[in-house]
Fold this protein.
Amino acid sequence: MGENVHSHAEDLERIEESDFWSKVKAKLILRLVEGKHVFDVGCGSGRLSKMLLDQGFTVVAIDTDPKAVEIAKKKGITAYVSDINDWSGEEKFDCIILGDVLEHIQDDKAALRKIHSMLMPNGCIVVNVPAYQALFSKHDFALGHKRRYSNKDLKGKLGDSGFKIEYFRHWNLLALPIAVGIKLSRKDYPHEEVASNKFLSNLLEKWLIAESKINYLFGISILCKARKIELDA
């Protein structure tokens, strides 16, 4: 990546303290992480990896964006520039995280099988993906998404790749009407504009935290945890 190429990780780093959605997502994911040795796929600006480090986990992170890896390393994270399918490390992990990553990968089933091989016996993965293919919009395309997921699609791909689902939910109902409006209007999601408003950002963060405690069935994101099982030879 040339120096003049814009990096989404730089956007995330700039608004990190007020990025209500990423804050809540990181907290929800963190509750599901287990073991000691964790692999963070698509670490972005390194928010979640840093939270894991601060809680005593050992963390290895990768991202395809060199700028993201540079930012993560400045936070003390062991990070590498790599795609998951190109990762050649031989370490085995207790838990692997894919926080809004799977939708960027063309062959997501191949990626899940690769991740299966990287886990310790009885290891787990924590996955967050965008929901409802009908909402696929200009915003998804701009972010490099290949798809959004239905419950059936995600559960099927996890099962086919050697995982047994232990936890499965939707969250972020708050953004559902916004996503519908974006789909109909073909406008972009005003994420940075909202995050730059400290009062509104704090209010929405509290709303999402409260909502996530009572709503598990609806929302524009799917969060799940799945356990590695042995695949038939």
